[in-house]
Amino acid sequence: MWKYLDQNYGDPRIISDIVTADIEKFKPIQDGEDHKFCDLANLVRRSYNILKKIKRPQDISNSHVISLIERKMTKDDIKVWTRHQHVQKIESSMDSLLTWMEDEMSARLRSGASIRKVRSSVNTTGINQEPNRKRTPCYVCNAIHYIDECPTFLAMSVNDR
Question: In this structure, are 86 and 33 located in the same domain?
């Protein structure tokens, strides 16, 4: 049994193929799907760690796989990633991509992105459809709205938020 398992699952090339196939199967992220960005970041980190463990990090840390991962992101995500590379004066590498993805994921979680909240559909009645959420003065501009609806807050940079 061990020989069979080792033959089918112990070969690092097979593991590498499976890991790469998981990334290939990941459906491209649509605008507003911050939770899927987090799923992609976690998948890439997990895949990288698996390949490092079997001493084959080069199978994921190459321009082909990095390009494959980039094609799973939204156009806006790619713009932010490209701008990050330019500002930081770094080459595209798996380490830099993973660092950026994890920072971006943390920023989305901290900023109250749609990952953390489930919003009701568009409220056309003018009646508060979220009874558990009390409208209080915004602590940024003192208007009566939620912080995630504040134009002043939304206009701030991530670091200022």
Answer: yes
> Across all residues in the chain, what is the average pLDDT?
82
Identify the pLDDT of residue 161: 77
Q: Give the pLDDT band of residue 122 (cuts 50, 70, 90).
A: very low
CB-count exposure of residue 3 (10 Å: 0-12, 13-18, 19+): exposed
87 with 150, same domain? no
Q: Which residues contact 114 (CB under 8 A, 6 or more apart)?
A: 32, 33, 34, 35
Statement to judge: residues 104 and 142 lie in one domain: no
What are the structure tokens assigned to 160, written together?
A: 């200022």
Q: Is residue 125 part of a domain?
A: no
- Name which of 43, 73, 69, 48 is nearest 58 in CA terms: 48
Tally of structural domains, the chain: 2
Query: Alpha-carbon distance 58 to 143, whole Å?
Result: 53
Residue 43 CA to residue 32 CA, distance in Å, equals 19
Question: Using 50, 70 and 90 to split pLDDT, how confident is the model at 135?
Answer: low
What pLDDT, on a 0 to 100 scale, did the predictor assign at position 121? 42
